[in-house]
User: What shape does this take?
Amino acid sequence: MDIDLSSHSYISTPEIDITIKLALKLNRPILIEGPAGTGKTSIAISLAEALNWSLYRIQCYEGITVESVIGEFDYRRQLLHIELERQKPHNPMNAEMDLENIFSRDFFIERPLFLSFISNQPNVLLIDEIDKSDEEFEAFLLEALGERQISIPELGTFKADNHDQVVILTSNSSRDLSEPLRRRCLYLYVDFPSLEREKEILSIHTDLPLDSPLLTSVTKIVQHLRSLDLRKAPSIAETIDWANSLIHLSKTQIDQQVLKTTLPVLLKYQEDLLLIKNKHSELIRLSNM
Amino acid sequence: MSVILNFVESLRFFGLPISPSETITAQQAYEYLGAVNKKTLRIGLKTAILKRHEDFNIFDTCFDQFFETKSSKLKEKDKPLSTESELFLKSVNRSVNSNDAGVAEFLVNDQMNEAVQSAMMITPTGGGTTGGQSSNQELRDLQQRLSRALYRAFNLEVPIRGLTPAQRMELNPEIVRIGFNLYQLFNEIEQSTRTETQNDTVQERIFSEKPEDLYQLDQFLTQDLTTVSATMGNIKEHLLEIGKILASRERRRRRQAKYGKLDFRRTIRKNLKNNGIMLELVQRHKRIEDPEIIILNDVSGSTRWVADWFFVICYTAQQVYKKIRVFEFDNTMVEVSSALNRKTIDRAMKERSICWEKPLRRRRIHSDYQDSFEDFFSLLKHRPLNKRTSILILGDCRDFEGMWRHDHPISSEYVQKMVNNTKGVFILNPESKNLWDAGDSVVKYFTYVGAQVFHVATLRDLLDFVFQLKIHT
Assistant: This one.
């Protein structure tokens, strides 16, 4: 299956293409690691668009629980149901049956992981920023990723029979993920793009032609900034924002004044701005080379 | 299957933890992608086998070497070799004559010269597969000498197989290439002598050697600090691993500590929708500020041996405490907090040395708490102490060169100033308790002004103190 991510505003690399191919063929999840802002999440979104598959997204955070990704019983509905049953003439058999009934799928609020696993439609499941979740949640995912099944005590075990499913996990490495989780996934590291790839990305998102001097200058400056020991290197999204800011300001080239006034779009820490303060002329010179 | 198995085996030699399931995935990828396009195969195997980007360099070098060797072997049909000595010499000659300058240089440099000379001496007596005990013994000796030369030449503190991911990332590709070729070379020897060495394979003997203390980590942690070796080897990496576990435990504890008592009003309000049945409990949310911790590490001659270990613990502690500053002192004080930002502990240690290049006053090595604390307050000028800060001092309180005013050391006045302006001052003293207050020790003067002094007998005590609740609850 040939997948063209570029038709969905994503400039891919051979690494990304081959990993996706393998994931589809071997039916394995993909763990994508890399610095923030390098387009890890966008891979999943663009893939779902390119394949015309549904996208289920789980945004991880500290304290995320299993219930918030699989689902939970709607106790309000359960209570209402019990109240309704109370109005009916008393029958001991009914009471027992109701107790079983209220723990059926009718009373279960289904959440993304569950929906993705039971869906018959092809889909992409994105588990975003898995490193932000706790170890307990990560351990829970082992069953889902390894055996492709979910166990809910009241409802039983649900096995994903749908082979048209890609599970993508992303991580910024703010916490080291466990070896068992890593072992169950194909691994993809997405670093900051090369100069040429970044130019292509910018060209798509800003409508500037590839040979535009502004595009070249922006890319060269950003690439140089990333090589410095900054607290936070500029991401691709910030680069696009910067290029768009320059376009809105009707600038066709970057001079010291423009750089000074627009640099906060790229750098988000005062210490980084101070570090660059004496290097403006050097950056301008580099951009014109 | 043998291609992938051999390739995986060569990667494992560098310490990459590759499980059988990953080998199976790699085999499936190999069958699916085919071996025609090398670039595609490289990416496919990389994504199937590797789980950390730190291992990319090793993988790429090994991939190039492995698949190059494999294709060249297919072209040249070597005639079967009769003796292990002949095989060894042939391998050495091939390496020396090949374009592999790194291996050639390694094989003929001073450290290796003796070993290669020994190999040459085996030839006349070489008994081959039926060669008897003596030649096998010589071969084993040779392999051991090669092993020792390998570590010396590469200046490695630990064997390649014992490196951590961060250390593997730092490994020079040239070393990987040489190591890979030597591994292949030994592998060839093993192939020819398998009958004699199958229970004691060359790779096992040469590359799995680990310093004994690596196996004795637990014992090391509970050993009396005064007898702990200053040689860190790979133990610092293991200490970091332990720190990670403790940090994770501490984070969980702090998360749970955020939940306070039951909030009745909000619980009742929330459960109105459930007909007043208390299905959802609402707890008060406690606001817990990140503790600010300042660590003062005594690196003077008398505590130097434990200061390095404490620095490693500080490096680990930043996983829990975001607001941590580390200073080191002997007769002057420098801030080494910038070293904590380095990605690996080795880099942090280097950065720490750089921080010492410009001390506020000339170093005299002997401890002077008075001058050091004076420097500490001048370094703090822009960020004064506050009541959220805890100060942790690791030192033996031996104020060797400090001055006295009337009946107390001047350094105790600075400690009092710290106590008055912070949440607390905690002194961790590694010295045996019966030596406290003897000679130049000023422990009691520091306790008089409000500092709390604890005896830390082992590295485990130090770890526990930093990671557990004593400072910030």
